[in-house]
Design goal:
4 helices; about 160 residues; about 45% helix
């Protein structure tokens, strides 16, 4: 009888510890998202952002992956056929701008080739070929040597 009670207690304790780590993880992601939003605001007003402080945030990778999913959904809405685009790499050269490539279908149903997209606010994406696409804002994406953080979006981890 005592062994069963001890085993049940240990199982309950393990379950509560597991839920605590999930809770901490969710709050870390929310804190990282808040820090990224504050960094966006600072860059809009010309202030410099300490990249090393942002990279040290727990939950940063999950927060950036959530942003990548939002950006992908926004880009897919802008494509002629949003059902089956071929996604290329996604990266963030400065932890604020999300860059990537996508191959969408044209009016004939064939893939049109890789097009660059970027999002400065983590949501609203500008696709190459769109009148709102600004080459000077997208210039940070062309620096391929600075792909320090590749985003996974909804791709499974290897």
């Amino acid at each position: 009888m005592k062994r069963f009670t001890l085993a049940a207690f240990v199982a309950a304790l393990a379950g509560s510890l597991a839920s605590c780590t999930n809770w901490e993880s969710e709050s870390d992601v929310k804190n990282a998202e808040l820090a990224l939003t504050l960094a966006e605001g600072r860059t809009r007003y010309g202030e410099t952002v300490n990249r090393s402080e942002l990279l040290a945030l727990p939950g940063l990778e999950k927060a950036l992956d959530q942003r990548a999913r939002k950006v992908k959904a926004n880009v897919a809405q802008q494509l002629r056929d949003p059902t089956d685009p071929i996604w290329g790499d996604m990266w963030t050269p400065d932890l604020i701008t999300t860059c990537g490539t996508v191959n969408g279908r044209n009016a004939y149903g064939a893939y049109a080739g890789q097009a660059l997209f970027y999002a400065r606010d983590g949501k609203t994406a500008r696709l190459q070929g769109d009148p709102l696409f600004k080459t000077d804002e997208a210039s940070i994406c062309y620096d391929t040597a600075d792909r320090r953080l590749i985003l996974r979006g909804d791709k499974p981890r290897s």
